[in-house]
Amino acid sequence: MHATPTTAAAEAERTPAARAEFPPPRYWHRWGAGDAPPAQLPAADAPAGAAEPGPPPSLLAPPAPGADEEAPYRVLLIEDDRSQALFAQSILNGAGMDVRVVGSGTEILSALREFRPELVLTDLHMPGTNGIEITAAVRADPAFSQMPVVILTGDTDPDQQLEVLQAGADDVLSKPVRPRHLIVAVASRVRRARAWQRQRDGEGLHPHTGLHTRPAMLQRLDAAVHARARGALYFVEIEGVATLRDRFGYFALEAALIEAGRALAAIADGQPIARLNENAFLLLGDDAGAAAQLDRARALRDGLGRRDIALAGETVRLRALVGYTPLPHEYEDGSSALAGAEQALREARALPAGIAAHLPAPRARETDSAGHRLLQEALAHDRFELAYQPIIAVAGGGEAQFQTLLRLRDDSGRLHTAGEILPLAEAAGALHEIDRRVMQHAVAVLRRRGREQRPVRLFVSQSARSLGRDGYADWLTALVHEEGIDSGSLVLDVRLEDALIHTIALQEFCAAMVIAGVQLCIGQYRAGADADALLARLPLSFVRLSARYSSQLDEPPVRDEMRTAIEYAHRLGLQVIGQQVENPQSAATLWVSGVDYIQGNLVQQAADSLDFDFQHSIL
User: Fold this and answer.
1) CA–CA separation, 132 vs 136, rounded Å?
2) Crossing angle for the helix pair 370-381 and 418-427, to the nearest 10 degrees
3) What does pLDDT average to over the chain?
4) Is the pTM of this model over 0.70?
């Protein structure tokens, strides 16, 4: 057997100490000056560290473009220090990327227009501007609003890095940055951006599953509703996914769900179908008439139930629940039609047959309902109230913050909880108005506390459907501005399940809220591919863990999944809230697992006042 000659790159890989983290003396001459002599590779027997490091190994680089290959990744590097700029440029050039360097803020906009980069890599601190301002400028331009932005900084302050992520940056790399880390961080984000662009520009089909992408399906739905097209919208949910994940693992389950999606597509027989989240699919059918729509729902349920699905070397059969709503109905847009199908799915979960249709109730029947009358009287006389539950930092601290909880007081003085109110509001089409009332109450509390010099942060639950409605972002932005609400004192809390369904509208809303200084939290968060992708796309500040984690911490798979969720959120710079903590054992496990905040009856039950001593709270 013949020995393979040792290259300088391979030697550098085996001897990490020889890899430079800052440019060595005269490094910029070697890579950037036109009069520099060609770089010479050291002899194979040269001692480690004797030579300056060359570009990182080619295995990290995208392939050199040929006739049928992708063009080099285009990176705009914004750095005022010439040696640092040439060092980063040479590393990325060596990995096959096309890098343009800009040294001042005045050149940025023209470089964006001329170079059309696929990623911006910028230093955080520069004379006359900074990475946060650059990120805001990029995000404000519709042509580049979805382009990845990566920040380089020598600042180790976690609050500073959190501020950068809140401004809309995709990642923060700490100096000195290792060449391998720099290449992977840049290349992976450009690859994802290109894949997203291909999906957007193509036929709207997912490259791996062959189903429609979620954005493409929602666009089709919106167009169908506005065109008053006849048919039905079907919401299909695979039952028992959590149990299968615990038994077989995520990757095996994901392969099975992809196979299930393809099986549903075959049953759909050419009708557009998309995967909405981990275990839910959406189908837009042209079936006219109640009988044909019920037949389609049964075909989806039974067709999947009879199909053998491979799962980790075993064969399983999956049960599908189907909720559907006929089109056209008096739906305003695709979002309201989706809400109708979602309502049907909730009803299907409670039925042995696993199939339900949602038909908006006639107004005459609604007026006979005691619940409807209760809701209408509450809206007419503003009988809504807020209760508050403290959220305390596990590391201590005096920052006052509460979760707001909706209450309705009827004419007899009895308080009704959100669990009683919201289903009524949804059935009556009044959920949007309830969300507005809740927000007005919360903002009034923030205004009063601000005037009293007793600042507080409120987490206010809102439905994703309300946030995505036309005009809601403008209304809330104006309300916050008029009332002089401090930046960061208002946090909108949206359930993960709703956020996954209304992702597109929520992204647009979130972009407006970041500018207004309003923070965002995803509630009921559980680790999963769709959930994790959503967290990476939205400009969030907090995540609230699913109550499942605090209630089932005695189960090792649940604890492992929770730690995965916490670690992922922290990698994104998000703060994690453990909710519904009822006993010291749960609090201790959450603390050890790395949560930042605790909420639940162990701390204090919900009350009608904001009286809690955060300065001396002890878990």
Assistant:
1) 6
2) 100
3) 81
4) no
